[in-house]
Amino acid sequence: MRKSNAMMLAVALTMSGTLALADEPTIEVEGAWARASIGVSRPGAAYLTLRNTGEETETLTGLQTDLAMMSEFHRTTTDDQGVSSMSPAGDIEIPPGESVLIQPDGGMHAMLMRLTRPMIEGETFSVTLLFADGDELAFDVPIYGIASRGPQTE
Amino acid sequence: MTRRRMLKSGAGILLALGGMLLVGWWQVDGPGAADPDIARPLTITDMSFALTDHEGTSVGPETLVGKPSMVFFGFTYCPDVCPTTLSDISAWLEDFGPEAEGMNVIFITVDPERDTVEAMADYVSYFHPSVRGWTGPGDEIARSADGFRVRYEKIPTDSGDYTMNHTASVFLFDETGRFSGTIDYHEPREFAVPKIRQALEIPSEEPV
After folding, report:
1. Could you report the per-residue pLDDT of A77-107, keeping only the tens digit for each?
2. Residue extents of the structural domains in chain B
3. A84 vs chain B: nearest CA distance in angstroms?
4. Nearest Cα residue in chain A from B127
5. Which fold has domain B36-200?
């Protein structure tokens, strides 16, 4: 499956060839990061880039984290008047061989609502991505400063 | 000979005309043009509003005259667009260094209900020290937004809170308060920096 977890892959590879193929990690997470928050009253945002190294389109349906009571992917759009708005992104398709930028530059972010604790610069928190086929992918997200522009400038 | 010289000077005139046309195109229709769909802000001196900065000082349009200004509307409960824009602005200012020190850099909230003077002070402290946060009564925020031709709207969210849709462009003014240009959300650095240079009236480094 798509967990980029060496242990899981090793287990999968010891099984039958087809199963091992089906269970090969096909989604890679790159450039995951989040901005620190001021307290817990404001919503937080996390960013990541997903690359599909497999043969089939993967569909991201949502995420979970114990850092927030509600979290969902949001899309930011700017209309022809220059007015920006956010709306739930819904299912996000990642075609084979392509990357989806859930980054400031990509117009999407993971919106973390009703924080359970402050997001503190230098700490990390765990995020689990949920996919349409029932697969999950867990990883840690580093927290940078509020004014950070992402991993490339850290 | 004479004929050839005439041809040469003719070509020179044509070249000069072409150059003028190019400059005209750049400013009117080209990348140098203000987006025709977006209403231009008024000249600062034609605006009228009274707000408070994050240190509790009374501010208004008059505060922005005498130095070039960069003005952006947003709110501190904004998780994505506002911190991204303020980070971009902070990075541009760092690029300019001392040249941008004389610039007014103003972040005006469209959410005065939650963005008190204290909230603004806390928030702007995380960005470039030049960034000033302005808030005030709802009707004065509305008057300032009207002057800058900024639109904003309160939108309830699933989590029971609300968010704000708002104009996310950065507005530039020269030191007399005359509108000098707009930097759109996510405009690449190579377009943003020359616009700031223009507002600061620093001659361009690149050959034209």
Report:
1. 999 888 999 999 999 999 999 999 999 988 9
2. 1-33, 36-200
3. 5
4. A147
5. Glutaredoxin (3.40.30)
